[in-house]
Amino acid sequence: MEQTKALVYQFRFVNTISEIKKSDWNAYFGITHPFTRHEYLSALELSQCVSVKSGWQPQHLVISQGDTIIALMPMYIKTHSWGEYVFDWAWAEAYERNQLHYYPKLVSSIPFTPTTGQRIGFAPLLSEDEKQSVITQASQFIDQQLVERNWSSWHGLFSLHSQHTLWENTLVTQRLGCQFHWRNNGYNDFNDFLASMSSRKRKNIIKERAQIQQAQLHFTFVEGNKATAEQWLGFVQCYQRTYLKRSGHQGYLSADFFSLIAATMGEAIRLLLIENSDNQLVASALYFVSDNHLYGRYWGALSEFDGLHFEACYYQGIEYAIANQLSVFDAGAQGEHKVARGFYPVATYSSHIIKHQAFNDAIADFCEQEQQHIKLYIQQMTEQLPYKAIQ
User: Fold this and answer.
1) Membrane-spanning residues where (predicted)?
2) Torsion 230-232-238-244 (CA) sign
3) pLDDT surpassing 60 at residue 221
4) What is the separation, in whole angstroms, between the first and last Cα of the chain?
5) Interatomic CA distance for residues 46 and 90, integer angstroms
6) Which of 18, 101, 152, 165 is buried most deeply by CB count within 10 Å?
7) Alpha carbon distance 317, 189 (integer Å)
């Protein structure tokens, strides 16, 4: 019987996404998910928000078969764990206690963006068997590079479940997480959404929104490529001021970054402008859209109003999703307070390769135990959903 010849792939790193054609990258990842677009990742690099200095050194992986690119992976050498949102600080501290170096490490993620998406882009028409072969050999290559380049580990964060399962039979340890996303259950408008909730929860939301109505604020969504330079500057001022107040710095992202994405992918951006009765900007929020998702990413305020955060970051997003028939609203990481406002708990997935065998075993045990807690937590949060009946 003739044996099937094993496919052999070649692997190489590039230290800037500009070395990969935009047409190739976007053909492999698609352009419906805004954060894996070449334009988004390029803006992060051109603005120096990701760089050696920021601790996010681009190290993208190109996988080829002969002269043909088969797959692409966004990848970064990290010298810290900021901006990832799959928390491994305890792992780093354990390394330090044992006088071992956890940094640098290798991360496949979208910097500062905890949204689920593709973490490997495959050539169109690649079969499932071929995809599995690519993943298997990629895990072996990464494991080898950890040794040769003295990286402690590799972390693939916020993977699509369909891609996450491809790593199951490889060298990786898998980790479960939880976020909260709103689902559009065919609502006609916001009142229709409220009608699906229990009386007490519905009244709480009405009360929260009434606070803002009394403030006589005006909310306007503007497409990113139609927003003026002044409107973008206002958003940046809001974003930087709120970050400075909360974290002591002006945020991970710069005005240059926002200018670049406005110019290159503005059609996928929705800028929410919030003005007072004198038409003065008091707050702003930045959203992204795909074919069926709305993503709430950043916000900031120049003035304080009770309930403004919930209105700008949750309720305005829900209204927009309903009006535009979007299926899911992802308002960002964490926050179980979202459950009372109709957001469902959803699982998130990450994969990890740890070079040090003893730590690999310990982390695998930890992730297995943690997974049971996360599953229970998701079940408990589901039971607390405010709907009249679980939908």
Assistant:
1) none
2) negative
3) yes
4) 53
5) 32
6) 152
7) 12
Strand locations in the chain (E): 10-14, 56-58, 60-65, 68-73, 76-78, 105-108, 121-122, 153-156, 173-183, 218-223, 269-275, 281-289, 293-301, 328-330, 343-354
Delineate the domains of the chain, giving CATH numbers in brackets: 10-179+346-383 (3.40.630.30), 185-326 (3.40.630.30)
Q: Is 24 exposed, middle or buried (0-12, 13-18, 19+ CB in 10 A)?
A: middle
Q: Are 296 and 303 in contact (CB under 8 A)?
A: no
| 3 pLDDT higher than 50 | no
C-alpha to C-alpha distance for 96 and 163, rounded to whole angstroms: 32
Contacts of 67 (CB under 8 A, 6+ apart): none
Please answer whether residues 28 and 74 qualify as being in contact, where contact means their C-beta atoms are separated by less than 8 angstroms: no
The one-letter code for the residue type at 129 is D
* DSSP assigned state of 169: T
* Euclidean distance between CA atoms 15 and 114, whole angstroms: 22
Q: Indicate the SS3 state at residue 159.
A: strand
| C-beta separation of 173 from 359 below 8 A | no
> Cα–Cα distance between 287 and 62 in angstroms, integer?
30
Per-position DSSP letters for 97-151, written without gaps between them: HTT----SEEEES-TT----B-SSEEPTT--HHHHHHHHHHHHHHHHHHHHHTT-
Give the integer Cα–Cα distance in Å for 227 and 203.
35
Kindly report, residue by residue over 61-85, the tens digit of the pLDDT.
999 999 999 999 999 999 999 999 9
* pLDDT digits 0-9 by tens, 160-184: 999 999 998 888 999 999 999 999 9
| Res. 347 pLDDT band, cuts 50 70 90 | very high
Q: Taking residues 326-351, report their average pLDDT.
A: 94
pLDDT in tens, 361-376: 999 999 999 999 999 9
The pLDDT of residue 281 is above 80: yes
DSSP label of 384: T
Question: What backbone torsions phi and psi does residue 381 show, to the nearest 5 degrees?
Answer: -65, -35
Asked if omega into 104 is within 30° of 0 (cis), the reply is yes
Q: The tokens of 242 are what?
A: 């709120």
